[in-house]
Structures are given as structure tokens and as C-alpha cells.
Amino acid sequence: MSTESTPVELASLADKRAAGFGLEAPFYTSPEIYEQDLDLIFGQHWIFAVAEAEIPDPGDYVTVDLGPHSVIVVRDDDENVRAFRNVCRHRGSRLLGSGCGSIGNIVCPYHQWTYRVDGSLIFAESQADTFEYDKFGLKPVNVRAVGGLVFLCLADEPPADFDEVSQLIEPYLKPYGLASAKIAHQTDIVEEGNWKLVMENNRECHHCDASHPELLTAYFPISRYEAEDVPPRLQQVYERYLEAQTDLEKAREVIGFPNGDICQLEGKATGFQISHLPLDGAGASFGPDGQQLCAKLMGSIEDPRFGDLSLHMQPNSWFHFLADHAVVFSVIPLAVDRTLVRTTWLVNPEAVEGVDYSVESLTSVWRATNDQDRVLVEGTQRGVTDPGYVPGPYSEVEGEVDAFVTWYVQRVQANA
């Protein structure tokens, strides 16, 4: 763990960060600052954990590891989402060792203390008659399901603004029916880079036209440009984007979908952004030239040409919701220079693999994009460890990277 001087060092470095510039090398390379990130960021804020679709039935669970913390996210017998410390109240044994599964009760493998999926203790062998079962239930963790997405917070007093954020987000998510969706596929990759570099890379598409050819068959690389900033080489693409944006606005009106983007990426504990952008080509999905990938649409969506509803949540997640499927991303730090990126594809619960969709086609674009991003992040990690690295200024189209770094610095200053 960190030394006594580390919080002061971290706060001092945060205070030195120049507005509009990147972070200094220790933010990406220092084991002590990494430990502080686990404490101040992942230990104090709402973290995206799983999609509700990963735990569809009572007894279904997923374990989430955040540094030294392990959390069980489980659906109880009343179909509520619960979260508990993955630690037995007897002698501290880890309760569930696998990443996911289904159980009737939670049974400690050491001495068989047994808990219901609501966390209550129901069996503890050889205890005195005066033993009070109700005092030794599993330790709960703050958990919230928002529109089919499950967030947890390890802090005793989580950021209070999450209620406000939830109310803003849920109307956008509701039409997609995420809570009752089906998991079509899930992949894990480990990127040899600091978690902040993973998030920074995601927060811009400045690199997309050079690095993501598969993604650009459907995804406009100029959605964040103002008209006067579009470079000549992208002018025709920008005009096509404006036409698609007009069609998307009409599709929203038909079903009464919320109109207007929301950007609150900094200045508050629970930073987020939600935006609804058209897709290129056929405008339906991430298939070749924007073609639809699943025959059955999500939730109550009626028009396949419904673009990409994109949600960014600080500090560890981003999401893409389309008419025919959703793609959910979570970022979990593993070490100062190693990060787990988990990608989950969701489809309509009635969609049949091999009939309505193929896993290969559904996942092709983002599997390629994830691998391309992995290479970019790993190259940047090598660069920031070089003695010649000096933080540079962000471009005019990297505002969301600046917002992420600004949010991070603000949260460090607030909690250090």
C-alpha cells in the first residue's frame, strides 16, 4: 500500500496539471499512485459492474474484483439485485471463487457457513446457543440497477448525485429493454497499460479514421466536429452525417424518444455523457456499411435506423445501444500497467443464435476495434515510461479526453 507521503505527492501532482494538457508520467507509471487510484477513485465512486442480463434468474451471480476488494453481485429470490463482500463472516474465507455462476445458497468452502442470496446467515455449525445469526450476515455493498445496468460503490457513503444521474439516464435506456435482454457474447482482454490510458483512448475518435477501418464502415469519425473545424478531407463525410442526423431526429419523434444530448463529464462526482448519433451507410448497426446484425430489435425500438445511443460513465465504462443490439464495456484495473477490458453484447431475449444473428458477425467490429485499441494503449504506456515524455496539449476534438482527465484531477483533489 501507499506510504504516508503518497497522498500529498498525488495531490501535489494533480494541482500542477496544466488545463488542456495531459497528465505527467507518474499518473500512469507509479505503483503508489495506482494504489491511491484504487482507494480514491474505485473505492469512492459508483463503478459499473455488470449488465442485469448477466444475472437473469434468482441465484445467478457475478463476482467483481477491484484491487483487494471482491464483491458478489447476485439476484435474490425476490429478483432484486444485491451486492455483498465476498468474504465469510466466520474466518474470512473467500466465498465464491468463480467469476460467475448460479447458486441456491452461498456456502463457505471452509467451514460451510451458509447464507441466503439476500445475505442472511442460516447455518453456522457448533456455535453456542446464544449465537445471534442476524448479526453475522454478509456485509452489503451499495448497489443500484439503472435501466438494466448495475453499478456498485464500495464507500460507506456513496456520492449522492447518483440519484440525479439515474433519473436523467433512465428515460434514454428504457426503450431498449436491457434488463430483460439476453447475453449473446462476452470477451475479456488484458491491455498492458494504465487504466487511465484505456479510458483516455476511448474518450476520443481523433484516431479512428487511421486506426479503426472496421468501425468506420458504420461510425462517423466527425461527430464531435463543429462545421468550421471539419478538415477538407472529411467534408463529404460531414455532409452525409448531417443528413443522417436529420433522419434520426424524425425516428426519435415517432416513438417519443428523449431528445437532446447531456454532457456532465466533469465538475461532479458521478460524471457522465449521453448522446444519440446516427450511423453511416444503412444506419442500422455495426454491420458492413451500417447493416443490421440482429433480425429482432431491442425493446420497444421500431426503426432499425435508430443510430447509436452512446453513454459514457466516469470512471470505468462506456456503452453503445443500437436498434438491434447493445455493447457494454467495463474497465477494471489489474496493476499499474495492466487493465481488464470486458465487452458484453446483448440482444433481444427472443433472438435465436444462428437464426436471428451470428456471434461472429455481431461481435466482429468491436473485437477488431478492441484489439486495435489495445495496441494503441500499449504503445502509449511504453511512451509515457520514456524519460523523454512530457504532457502535450489536447486538440480541439479531444475535449472528452480533457474532460475525463479534469474529472480525475478534481476527484483526486476532493478525496486526497
Automatic annotation (TrEMBL):
CDD domains: RHO_alpha_C_GbcA-like (cd08884), Rieske_RO_Alpha_N (cd03469). It comes from the Bacteria. PROSITE patterns: RIESKE. Keywords: 2Fe-2S, Iron, Iron-sulfur, Metal-binding, Oxidoreductase. The keyword Nucleotide-binding does not apply. GO terms for molecular function: 2 iron, 2 sulfur cluster binding; iron ion binding; monooxygenase activity; oxidoreductase activity, acting on paired donors, with incorporation or reduction of molecular oxygen. Residues 47-152 form the Rieske domain. This is (Fe-S)-binding protein. The lineage of its organism: Bacteria, Bacillati, Actinomycetota, Actinomycetes, Propionibacteriales.
